[in-house]
Design brief:
Mean pLDDT: 95
Strand order of the largest sheet: 3-2-8-4-6
Number of strands: 8
Radius of gyration: 12 Å
CATH class: Alpha Beta
Largest sheet: 5 strands, mixed
Number of helices: 2
Number of domains: 1
Structural class: mainly beta
CATH architecture: Roll
Shape: globular
Low-confidence stretches: none
Strand content: 25-35%
Length: 105
């Protein structure tokens, strides 16, 4: 498991809100962490950058501005991406109460 972003502030913290910057506009959706960040945004009617949906192309990469996300494997990401707080939103799920990502970084 690869986790990116801020440490959790509470031991049993649960996701509640997802905020994302898409094409320069901030959007917000209720979020419980059961879907990937990309799925949650698309299901809410937004069109964040994406292509393969499998973590193989980096089209959906976003910077974790606030909160913490985790994905099963590093995949196509490098350690440098992780250090720069970049996650594949087609693979990553939020694990903190608020997750804020930017596709415009």
């Amino acid at each position: 498991m690869i986790c990116i972003g801020d440490p959790l502030t509470q031991e049993n913290e649960k996701p509640k809100k997802l905020e994302a910057e898409i094409d320069g506009e901030w959007v917000s959706v209720d979020y419980d962490g059961s879907k990937t960040i990309l799925e949650a945004l698309m299901d809410a009617g937004f069109d964040p950058p994406h292509s393969c949906l499998a973590g193989n192309c980096m089209a959906c990469v976003a910077k974790v501005e606030k909160g913490r996300v985790c994905q099963e494997e590093l995949g196509i990401l490098t350690e440098e991406n992780v250090e720069d707080r970049e996650a594949l939103t087609c693979q990553a799920r939020g694990v903190s109460e608020v997750v804020k990502v930017s596709y415009s970084f």
